[in-house]
Amino acid sequence: LTNIVSTGVKWYILLLFMNEAASELGLEFIAGILQQVLRLLPEWLFGGLMIGGALVLGHWAQEKITESKLLFGAIGGRIIYFVIVYFAIVLSLPKFGFQNTEILVDTFKLLAGGLSAGLAIAVGIAFGSALKDPAKKILDDMFK
Question: Would you say residue 10 lies in a domain?
């Protein structure tokens, strides 16, 4: 890890000096390109760290949910992993220069709404089936 960081810092400092050298020599086109790279490099690094952190956090959450031995824990763990990574990618896309990510947010809202509605209907049907006889008795007693 220290080797990676030191190499990255070395190249960043080298690019800084190359930018200043190009400016002093009057190579404005090359200096402009280097300035763009130097301006975007921290953004790209932060976006990569966001995605990397989400991958680690998502994997950890998936393991914890799977280890809990809950009903549908393996599927729930995969869903949580997907949601965490999806949000990180959507949030980090502006760091890479993609400004309009509203369609991805709206797509997630539609998927979450559809999943919630389907789950609510399934739970309603399950409870309706399970409580059919007690509900019939209660209604019969009410209308006597």
Answer: no
Whether 20 maps to a domain, the answer reads no
Q: Do the beta carbons of residue 81 and residue 62 sit within 8 Å?
A: yes
Residue 51 domain-assigned? yes
Please tell me the total count of domains within the chain: 1
Residue 93 belongs to domain spanning: 42-142
What's this model's pTM, rounded to 2 decimal places?
0.67
Q: What is the full per-residue pLDDT of the chain (144 aa) written as tens digits?
A: 788 889 888 888 998 888 889 888 888 898 888 888 888 888 888 899 999 999 999 999 999 988 887 777 888 889 889 989 998 998 888 888 888 888 888 888 898 899 889 988 988 887 777 777 777 777 777 777
Indicate whether 46 belongs to any domain.
Answer: yes
Written as one letter, the residue type at 56 is V
In the chain, alpha helices (H): 2-24, 28-67, 73-92, 102-130, 132-142
